[in-house]
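Hi support team,

I submitted a single chain yesterday and got back a structure, but I'm not sure I'm reading the token output correctly. Could someone confirm the output below corresponds to the sequence I sent? I've pasted both exactly as they appear in my results page.

Thanks,
R.
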Amino acid sequence: MSHGIKPIRRVVTGNDAQGRSRVLIDSAAPGVTANTFKKGTGMTDIWLFDSCPASISGERDDGNVPFAFEPPARGGRLRIVQSEPKPAAYDPRRTPTSLRAPAAENGGRNLGARPPEFVYHAHSQD
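Hi R., thanks for writing in. Yes, this is the structure output for that exact sequence:
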């Protein structure tokens, strides 16, 4: 795949006229959006649904759609984000966005909570 993003294999199944399951698509997901600022990072859209419950019939490819960041108002988007790893010296206690549980909720003890992975933002000098 281009831009150094690892290809994501996507297997899409559907039902034939007799209601039997079959494979419709078995290939790399086509919805790849590379991060233009950092090689090897970006997003791969796997599937999109615009209503709940999601339709699971038909022959169309609901993973090969134009890129949009937000999900549909009444649906959702399955997306894999590839980012660079945290530096070896990363310490969440020194990150200003680190989440801490309030002492009152922990029996008076102030327990440091590990921040969610999405809190970390990598900055590059290149």
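A quick pointer for reading it: Confidence is low (pLDDT under 50) at residues 110-126. Let us know if anything else looks off.

Best,
Support desk
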